[in-house]
Task: inverse folding
């Protein structure tokens, strides 16, 4: 991971938390990866929940293990959470730029991401990139089988549908390491994926229709009102920019818009 991202940390610390469980859910595992900064350097951390349900016992002394004996899950979470240490801090300075593409988080994708706790667009983008990194590192290690398994899991099971576009960009990074010596230097180029994507492309990836319908909108306004604008999650209504689509003045108290929209 250090070689791939072109960066090293002072230390990597793994913490287990046997109490990080969800009631009434037989199998629930996750982790989080806080970064700690010290005078000597940055320390990447991972705090992990148990991976396996345990049979209830009467006394804590009767437990011989605490749900962490699952190497496959452990390896996956370590790569994922430490991946956030390499990625997130370099996306932070570009949060404003990322939010300009928040229209891509259309209702359809919001529903998918909310299931996993990523309904905030910058967090969703970070998850896309970290998961893309997992795939590319697996390929760099010569593990094609793992890479394909991760693609299936992240794209098909969890709906991180922009991973193919991010993978294509990361190939540019991988093939130009003299120019981009670290991931940090490549972030501005990588984020061009967001500028080159549309709501319609996202919907297609989610298997949803992009059929557009003729829509006539009439808005009643008080007399002597000025200009009236409309915005929404599609290019034909401004992609959430409130200063693009102005309604036509058809009378002192009416404004109208004729457009083609995807009805969601």
Result:
């Amino acid at each position: 991971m250090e070689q791939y991202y072109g960066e090293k940390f002072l230390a990597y610390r793994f913490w287990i938390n046997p109490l990080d469980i969800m009631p009434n859910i037989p199998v629930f595992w996750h982790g989080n990866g806080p970064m700690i900064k010290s005078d000597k350097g940055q320390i990447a951390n991972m705090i992990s929940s148990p991976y396996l349900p345990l049979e209830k016992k009467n006394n804590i002394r009767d437990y011989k293990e605490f749900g962490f004996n699952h190497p496959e899950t452990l390896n996956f979470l370590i790569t994922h959470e430490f991946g956030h240490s390499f990625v997130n801090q370099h996306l932070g300075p570009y949060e404003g730029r990322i939010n300009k593409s928040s229209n891509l988080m259309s209702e359809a994708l919001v529903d998918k991401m909310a299931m996993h706790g990523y309904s905030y667009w910058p967090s969703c983008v970070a998850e896309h990139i970290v998961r893309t990194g997992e795939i590319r590192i697996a390929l760099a290690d010569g593990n094609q089988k793992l890479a394909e398994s991760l693609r299936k899991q992240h794209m098909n099971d969890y709906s991180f549908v922009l991973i193919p576009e991010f993978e294509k960009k990361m190939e540019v990074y991988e093939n130009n390491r003299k120019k981009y010596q670290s991931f940090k230097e490549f972030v501005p180029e990588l984020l061009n994926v967001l500028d080159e994507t549309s709501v319609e492309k996202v919907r297609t990836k989610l298997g949803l229709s992009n059929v557009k319908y003729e829509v006539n909108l009439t808005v009643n306004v008080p007399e002597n009102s000025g200009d009236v604008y409309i915005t929404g999650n599609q290019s034909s209504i401004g992609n959430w920019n409130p200063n693009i689509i102005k309604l036509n003045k058809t009378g002192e108290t009416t404004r109208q818009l004729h457009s083609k929209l995807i009805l969601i």
Notes: Strands lie at 11-16, 31-32, 35-38, 41-48, 212-220, 229-230, 245-246, 248-251, 254-262.
